[in-house]
Design a protein that fits this description.
The protein has nine helices and eight strands. The chain has 274 residues and is α/β, with parallel strands linked by helices. The protein has one domain (2-272): TIM Barrel (Alpha-Beta Barrel), CATH 3.20.20.
Length: 274
């Protein structure tokens, strides 16, 4: 059994009518539960609806850093009423993105400052609700967004655990997250030929310190690279990562499932209960 710890089933690239088939294909490939993440005001309701419609789905609620300029200042009021919902598994996707240029009318300094302000407030919401948080970081070069996000995390680490999702970096950066008390998660990037840094991180990260995800509809693994990704394709990434780590797939699945269950406060899957 595997858990897709990060997908975007509310994306416009997935029609609502095909979600049951996506769930079926995922189950046929051993993916039993899906964590779908909201990224903006417009898809909050769609992700909540999916979580309440399908028992295999849980939702996370947040504002992506690339959407902060289009989001109301009091975005907290949109999220707070749902934080006690048992189908809400964490806060996110939030974080810092210094890769994309500032939108029209914004300086990069102001845009990045608003992202940091929003990230602080997401952490505050997570602390208030007793939830963990899903972090995105991305840079054009260097690791400034990662450094800034880790600094903010340090203020909240005693009460909130963070996962740095779609982890693209070398082992040295992964060690900083783990040392801070956080987790990382791996996507289909681990199957790409040009992703040697990620493969080295896959090999060196201790068991219990990472999860698996698709980030679908993005980052489809080999042999589907370049196509729309979906949760069923997690199996390809898991097989590659197990091979890279010298593990049996069943052991990797068991370990990462337990990490995801703990992080997202999920009850053990019925098949695990004897």
């Amino acid at each position: 059994m595997l858990i897709d710890s990060h997908c975007h089933l509310g994306s416009h690239k997935f029609s609502p009518s095909e979600i049951p088939d996506l769930i079926t294909r995922a189950a046929e490939n051993g993916i039993t539960r899906l964590i779908t993440l909201a990224t903006c005001e417009d898809d909050l309701s769609a992700n909540l609806h999916l979580a309440h419609t399908h028992p295999q789905i849980h939702a996370c609620l947040g504002i992506h850093p690339c959407d902060v300029h289009e989001t109301r200042d009091d975005f907290d009021t949109l999220l707070r009423p749902h934080l006690t919902d048992p189908k809400v598994a964490a806060i996110g996707e939030t974080g810092l993105d210094y890769f994309h240029p500032a939108p029209s009318g914004w300086t990069e300094a102001d845009y990045h400052a608003r992202q940091r302000h929003f990230l602080h407030r997401h952490f505050q919401l997570a602390k208030e609700a007793g939830l963990n948080i899903v972090i995105h970081t991305r840079d054009r070069s260097g690791c400034a967004s990662f450094d800034d996000a880790l600094k903010i995390y340090a203020d909240y680490a005693p009460s909130v655990r963070a996962v740095f999702h779609c982890f693209p970096g070398p082992p040295s950066l992964a060690q900083r997250v783990i040392h801070a008390g956080g987790l990382i998660s791996f996507t289909g990037i681990a199957t790409f030929k040009n992703a040697q840094a990620v493969v080295e991180t896959v090999k060196s990260t201790p068991s219990g310190s990472f999860m698996l995800e698709t980030d679908s509809p993005y980052l489809a693994p080999v042999p589907h690279r370049g196509k729309r990704c979906e949760p069923s394709l997690l199996k390809h990434s898991a097989e590659a990562i197990a091979q890279q780590r010298g593990q049996e797939l069943c052991d990797l699945a068991r370990e990462t499932t337990e990490v995801a269950e703990n992080f997202f406060r999920l009850s053990p899957h019925p098949e695990k209960i004897t």
